[in-house]
Write a structure and sequence with these properties.
362 residues; alpha/beta; Aspartate Aminotransferase, domain 1; Aspartate Aminotransferase, domain 2; 2 domains; 7-stranded mixed sheet; 3-stranded antiparallel sheet; 12 strands; 15% strand; globular
Length: 362
C-alpha cells in the first residue's frame, strides 16, 4: 500500500471497502442529528433507540432473545472485537484462530498479550475448521474460538451443520465463541448462519458492523451482541478507550436500519456478478482461485508464478500498477496465495485481473 501511494493511476485491489456511496437518507440523518444539537456524549453503550432496534433485528435473525442490555455500539467492528477480547481473556490466555484469517485478529491479540493458537484450513475442508482440529487446539488456557463467516479472505461460509457442531464443541470445552459476522448480508448462495442461533447457554459473542452492509466504512459504527455479563465488561472496557461512538454517526446507523434495504441486495448482486467474471477470467487463463460463497474477496493461487506471495505482489505493483494482498498477511502456510477485493469498479477490477494474469505468466 505504501508503494502504491507513490504511483499515479494505480488499480487498488487490496482494500476491502465498498465502492458504493453511503445511502443518501443515512447522510441526511446524520446531518439532521448534528444540526438539531445531537452532538454531545451519548450513553457509553450507544443511544437506546439504536440498541433497541439492533436487539429486535438480532432476535428476528437468530432466534436468540436479545435485550437492549446485550448490545454495545462500538467504534466499528474493530473496537467490538478488541473490547470483547479484553473482556474474555487475560494476558497469557489462549484464543483459537483460523489461518487464513483477517490479520487484525492476531495484531489485537498481540497488543493484549493473548496467545493465538492457529488452526490451518484449506480447500479440502472448505476453509472451515474441523472439530478434530479444534479439539487438538484446546488447552487449559483456552478462553475462546474466533470464527469469521463469511470469511475474509477466503469467502468461506459455515453452514448450519458445521456451526451447530462448532458451538457444541465450544460447550463441551467450556469456552466462548467470538463470531465475526460483518459480512453476514453478503452471501451469494444459501443464507448466513449466525453462531448465536445455536447458543443455548450464553457463550457466543457476535460482532457486526455497518461498514460493509451499508457502505459506511468511514462512519465507524459497529456493535457487539453478547451475554449480559460479557456485555457489561465490554461497556466497561469501552469507557477508558473510546468513551462512546460519535452521536451523529449513531443516528445515521439507526436510519440505515430503519430505511430502505434495497442497497444491500444491489451491492451483493454487483459483487456476485464481479465474482463470476473474475473467476471466468482466471479460469480461462489456467489460474486457480476459490469461488467465494460470501464476502467480496477472491483467494487466488499464484504458485505457478514460482515466486513468493510478497515478491509477486511487489512485482505486480512495480510493473503493472496493481495492488493485491500477499497471502502470508493472513497467517502461516498461505505464501502461494494473494487476495483481491471485488469492491472496486468493474472496469478497474477486470483490467487489474488482466494485468495479474499477465504477471503470472512472466
Amino acid at each position: 500500500m505504501d508503494r502504491a501511494f507513490g504511483l499515479t493511476d494505480c488499480i487498488r485491489l487490496e482494500v476491502g471497502e465498498p465502492n458504493f456511496p453511503t445511502p443518501q437518507h443515512v447522510i441526511e440523518a446524520a446531518d439532521e442529528a448534528a444540526r438539531s444539537g445531537k452532538t454531545r456524549y451519548t450513553e457509553n453503550p450507544g443511544i437506546p433507540e439504536l440498541r433497541s432496534r439492533i436487539a429486535e433485528i438480532f432476535t428476528e435473525d437468530t432466534g436468540r432473545k436479545t435485550e437492549v442490555g446485550d448490545v454495545v455500539v462500538t467504534t466499528g467492528a474493530m473496537a467490538a472485537l478488541y473490547t470483547t477480547l479484553m473482556s474474555i481473556a487475560d494476558p497469557g490466555d489462549e484464543v483459537i484462530v483460523m489461518s487464513p484469517s483477517w490479520p487484525n485478529y492476531l495484531m489485537q491479540m498481540t497488543l493484549l498479550g493473548i496467545r493465538p493458537v492457529t488452526v490451518s484450513t484449506n480447500e479440502t475442508n472448505g476453509h472451515v475448521p474441523t472439530i478434530e482440529q479444534l479439539e487438538s487446539a484446546v488447552s487449559v488456557r483456552t478462553k475462546a474460538v474466533l470464527l469469521n463467516s463469511p470469511c475474509n479472505p477466503t469467502g468461506a461460509v459455515i453452514n448450519q451443520t458445521q456451526m451447530a457442531r462448532i458451538i457444541d464443541f465450544a460447550r463441551r470445552a467450556d469456552i466462548y465463541v467470538i463470531s465475526d459476522e460483518v459480512y453476514d448480508k453478503i452471501v451469494y448462495e444459501g443464507t448466513h448462519v449466525s453462531a448465536a442461533s445455536y447458543d443455548s447457554d450464553g457463550r457466543v459473542v457476535c460482532i457486526h458492523s455497518f461498514s460493509k452492509t451499508y457502505s459506511m466504512t468511514g462512519w465507524r459504527v459497529g456493535y457487539a451482541v453478547a451475554p449480559p455479563e460479557i456485555a457489561t465488561l465490554i461497556r466497561k472496557c469501552q469507557e477508558p478507550t473510546v468513551s462512546c461512538v460519535n452521536a451523529p454517526a449513531q443516528y445515521a446507523a439507526l436510519a440505515a436500519l430503519n430505511g430502505p434495504q434495497e442497497i444491500i441486495g444491489e451491492m451483493r448482486d454487483a459483487y456476485r456478478e464481479r465474482r463470476d467474471e473474475v473467476n471466468r477470467l482466471l479460469s480461462s487463463s489456467g489460474i486457480s482461485a476459490l469461488n467465494p460463497a460470501g464476502a467480496f474477496y477472491i483467494w487466488v493461487d499464484i504458485s505457478s508464478s514460482q515466486r513468493s506471495d510478497v515478491d509477486f505482489a511487489m512485482d505486480l505493483v512495480d510493473k503493472h500498477q496493481v495492488t493485491v494482498v500477499p497471502g502470508s498477511t493472513f497467517g502461516p502456510s498461505n505464501e502461494d496465495r494473494v487476495r483481491i477485493s471485488l469492491a472496486t469498479t468493474p472496469d478497474q477490477l477486470y483490467e487489474g485481473i488482466r494485468r495479474l494474469i499477465e504477471e503470472s505468466r512472466s
